[in-house]
Amino acid sequence: MIEYRNLKIAILGAGSVGAQVASLLLEHGEELANRVGAGLEVVGIAVRDLDAPRTAEIPRELLATDARSLILGADIVIEVMGGIEPAREYLELALTSGADVITANKALLATHGPELFAIAEQVGAQLYYEAAVGGAIPIIRPLRDSLAGDRVHRILGIVNGTTNYILDRMDRDGDTLEQALAAATELGYAEADPTADIDGFDAAQKAAILASLAFHTTVAVDGVHREGIRTVTRDQVVAAQRSGFVVKLLAVCERLVDPETGRDGVSARVHPALIPAGHPLAAVHGANNAVFVEAEAAGSLMFYGAGAGGRQTASAVLGDLVSAARRHVVGGPGVAESTHADLPILPISSVSTRYQITLSVLDRPGVLAQIATLFSEHGVSVEAVQQSVVTVGGGEDEESAGATLVIGTHRATEKALAATVADLAGSPVVARVESVLRVEGL
Amino acid sequence: MIEYRNLKIAILGAGSVGAQVASLLLEHGEELANRVGAGLEVVGIAVRDLDAPRTAEIPRELLATDARSLILGADIVIEVMGGIEPAREYLELALTSGADVITANKALLATHGPELFAIAEQVGAQLYYEAAVGGAIPIIRPLRDSLAGDRVHRILGIVNGTTNYILDRMDRDGDTLEQALAAATELGYAEADPTADIDGFDAAQKAAILASLAFHTTVAVDGVHREGIRTVTRDQVVAAQRSGFVVKLLAVCERLVDPETGRDGVSARVHPALIPAGHPLAAVHGANNAVFVEAEAAGSLMFYGAGAGGRQTASAVLGDLVSAARRHVVGGPGVAESTHADLPILPISSVSTRYQITLSVLDRPGVLAQIATLFSEHGVSVEAVQQSVVTVGGGEDEESAGATLVIGTHRATEKALAATVADLAGSPVVARVESVLRVEGL
């Protein structure tokens, strides 16, 4: 066995990810040392409560409550505690003391990323965060390095496992949203308060990180338009199936031309969307994640895998740890964040996409013509209309109560569509605007 | 506009990849300079014939026939000429002169990789090869860096677009192998001599590269067991469909325990295999590639995209170029190849997997029992049997001519299976062993 010098590793947090990081590091220490050319010595694991139960076995003597001392004695700090404070303060301390930092903390990056990257660059330290998006799926490194010579046009990401599990159950098992959420909670996919997942906050943080990387532009989480899945109904999912679509909660990051200024800009948004059933993203089931990238030269790429889980996330953390440790061994600064493009962040109103609008209308002659006119007045071009007559009663007593129109549009701006929908809602021939869904991946 | 110092780039080859690399570099030069922090100046493109037709527009004054002078004046050399010589000699010259090298040349890496990596390490230069496997799909970097802290168990790769296109046509359009190959040739997916694709040579080179990376062990191409798709019939594809499978040409790289020694070893092999229809790899259609990775902590990951094409491959080359150029700007050595594990390469006889065996047998009582006994004598456990009676004649004249048995096995070694199949072929109740296919992804 070769003798190496040891790099000192501090771990902040011993929750489901931290405990797995520690346990894998202890288990595979020798193999990792051979890959790196240096030993990886865990000097301590900072926790709030020494006696809290852990999901993996950790030697008791490694646990410590004084995070600051641990940080100041470490070459590399792994932050897997989550939350904004004191994580932000600890990482600032680690970076200013010259340690490299590895974090899985998407909330922190999406809110305080730019200032942390700035500190890192100033002192020549590195900030790694492969685990912050897509769990074990390598997506940060491919975007930052592999596609660094290409130009990314669009990212469509299923980046929240909980909502994908819920929508998948609604699609494949016929669950209502409530039933699917209950199942997700029971399986531990959803937390007691599912707001972060269901309302798209988690996905929006990841969208901010992906858009920043892909477009070399700082995108903060408040620049991300956000709609969750609370309003998605079983009826919508069934109607989507019938027209050859699947409903997914997507993080969409797009480089587009601002219709106001004619100049390039960036849009990042999270919302439920219809995806064609034959699209690779439509086959992402359960709590899995996938990121679909469209680039100028590379064409379409997809990265797929488990988006969460302590052990899976730990894999991404350890990959970053090996990178950071190799840099310590061979010397030399790493790579700073690239935000040179600094494109404007465009509001949702600047986005153009396709839509599927479901209307309950009166069942009488001339209704379709009136509605079509209304679309064309706003410059929204209709691609397809499906009409079905809704009946009340049954057998021989049935009578027509109205009809349902499902209207698919060509590409239109959000602005034009919003104006169209407002007019539809006020039209005397429309009983109700049942649903408006964006269509992506066509 | 910021003024940067220029890095000198030499390109060897102006075929479909080289021409695209040059044209993208010239088109996006300023954007790439901003990402790198240095200008990327193409000092010349080495070609054999200055007047050959090109697939992209390249300024005539950049073309040169003296590759050696170009190489000696370059900071970074991009080799996209293909073939073994003179590519090997040129890369050796580039590395010994201290230039970093980027290559898309899988044949060269699979045969002379170890000596080139050794030279690079000696002089502190870097050898990048993201484009050698899976075209634009980032797979080298994820394996080398993102999964560096994890332990890869198995890779199942669709790494040859031509054969995937052919098998996909046989599966979805009902083509015979000959019809599908003709279509692939017409579309330019298959070359006039399709041997490298059809007989699995191309996939075997990629398997050698993937296995070396995943298992930190040098795997040469002659250590890869290789079977092509020439023997795959439309009947096999139809039978596979009926039992819920798709036939794919797979590159399988596996870490396994050598049954002879009880110690860990590596198997790399290329052969047609049955994949369950619900497996993510089964949905990889046309000429696309995908690499499915099973790792200890990360679980299952998949990387999907266009596996070939000049522009797609150029994207991977440019990603490597940005990495190499950043290293020149920030200084410091890069990362050497990691072959510390140095596991033994096991022959195909040490592999165990599942099989599906199709037999034509006599249609009389007791046949199934005899065949089942024969399997069990070799320790091969039968999981499922489907029997169908084949008739000759038609209408009222039909008579039973024999039966077809499709036998699925549990996991068994290649050795045991080969012995079983030899005995089946010699059995008086077996008219013919119709096909033996491995089953992966279960």
From TrEMBL, chains A, B:
Annotated residues for binding of NADPH: 106
Residue ranges occupied by any ACT domain in the UniProt entry: 356-438
Gene3D superfamilies the UniProt entry points to: 3.30.70.260, Dihydrodipicolinate Reductase, domain 2 (3.30.360.10), NAD(P)-binding Rossmann-like Domain (3.40.50.720)
Cofactor(s) it depends on: a metal cation
Protein name from the UniProt record: Homoserine dehydrogenase
Family under the similarity heading: Belongs to the homoserine dehydrogenase family.
Reactions catalysed according to its record: L-homoserine + NADP(+) = L-aspartate 4-semialdehyde + NADPH + H(+); L-homoserine + NAD(+) = L-aspartate 4-semialdehyde + NADH + H(+)
Source organism (scientific name): Protaetiibacter larvae
